[in-house]
């Protein structure tokens, strides 16, 4: 339990990165593909590093899923920087598969967290949103880059809010049981 509660700030960083990314994507809907790649790459990299770091700090029960999700996020971020001229369809598939893998990992981690802390549904909600988002992108790949920008922006804001809420819940739980 101490591993999870000591890492509340990683959830906060991840949530803030998601929220900032979402707002920037909505502010500039006519964004170029290169800028979208940079925004997504930075978001995926920060989220992946935070999850990987949390995975190494947590106990064995949630370690594997956090490390796996972190590695997927880091690889998605690196791929966007290595190939900046990626087409909108290729970017759509990168985002879709990353969101699906991250969503499944968050749902499973949330289920494990529910065993340790009551009512920890926020991580599961974030995972469900990620999973639905990824599936929707795969179902309608021809929606275009502008649609992707709006979908990504709305998803990132909702996901960021869920992660920020979870981080404060975990932080408050830490103080509630008298842990440092």
Automatic annotation (TrEMBL):
<dbReference type="InterPro" id="IPR052712">
    <property type="entry name" value="Acid_resist_chaperone_HdeD"/>
</dbReference>
<protein>
    <submittedName>
        <fullName>Uncharacterized membrane protein HdeD (DUF308 family)</fullName>
    </submittedName>
</protein>
<feature type="transmembrane region" description="Helical">
    <location>
        <begin position="121"/>
        <end position="142"/>
    </location>
</feature>
<feature type="transmembrane region" description="Helical">
    <location>
        <begin position="33"/>
        <end position="53"/>
    </location>
</feature>
<keyword id="KW-0472">Membrane</keyword>
<dbReference type="Pfam" id="PF03729">
    <property type="entry name" value="DUF308"/>
</dbReference>
<feature type="transmembrane region" description="Helical">
    <location>
        <begin position="148"/>
        <end position="170"/>
    </location>
</feature>
<dbReference type="InterPro" id="IPR005325">
    <property type="entry name" value="DUF308_memb"/>
</dbReference>
<feature type="transmembrane region" description="Helical">
    <location>
        <begin position="7"/>
        <end position="27"/>
    </location>
</feature>
<feature type="transmembrane region" description="Helical">
    <location>
        <begin position="65"/>
        <end position="84"/>
    </location>
</feature>
<dbReference type="GO" id="GO:0005886">
    <property type="term" value="C:plasma membrane"/>
</dbReference>
<keyword id="KW-0812">Transmembrane</keyword>
<keyword id="KW-1133">Transmembrane helix</keyword>
<feature type="transmembrane region" description="Helical">
    <location>
        <begin position="90"/>
        <end position="109"/>
    </location>
</feature>
């Amino acid at each position: 339990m101490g591993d999870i509660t000591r890492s509340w700030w990683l959830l906060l960083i991840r949530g803030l990165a998601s929220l900032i990314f979402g707002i920037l994507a909505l502010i500039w809907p006519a964004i170029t593909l290169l800028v979208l790649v940079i925004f997504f790459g930075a978001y995926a990299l920060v989220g992946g590093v935070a999850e990987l770091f949390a995975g190494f700090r947590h106990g064995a029960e949630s370690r594997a899923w956090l490390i796996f999700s972190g590695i997927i996020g880091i690889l998605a971020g690196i791929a966007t920087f290595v190939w900046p001229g990626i087409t909108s369809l290729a970017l759509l598939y990168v985002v879709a598969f990353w969101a699906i893998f991250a969503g499944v990992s968050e749902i499973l981690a949330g289920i494990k967290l529910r065993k340790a802390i009551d009512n920890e549904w926020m991580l599961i909600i974030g995972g469900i949103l990620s999973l639905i988002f990824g599936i929707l992108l795969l179902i309608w790949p021809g929606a275009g880059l502008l649609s992707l920008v709006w979908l990504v922006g709305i998803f990132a804001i909702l996901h960021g809010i869920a992660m920020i809420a979870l981080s404060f819940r975990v932080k408050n739980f830490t103080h509630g049981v008298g842990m440092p």
